[in-house]
Amino acid sequence: MCIGALDVSPSFPLCRRVSKKSRIRVHRLTRWRRRSCNGEMMVMGTELELKNLKLYLENRNIMEENAKLREKASLLHQENQVLMLELQNKKFSHVV
Fold it and tell me: Taking the complete model, does pTM exceed 0.90, yes or no?
């Protein structure tokens, strides 16, 4: 009935040209819906970025702590080897 939204006849009130205000309202509503959906996605994206950053920093701290513990373990191993050598030298010195 309404091709091109033209007013065909006064007997068809729905076939009148859509007013400019209505088009603007619909356009604004559509834009608002898009923004709200994009806003939700942006919030989710921001939350994920923050969570990712927190996990990255936590992982980096764990790796730094791991490196420190490896260094301590290496020093303790060296100290243990030195003490074992001293103990063996004392055993052999008492035998002779």
Answer: no
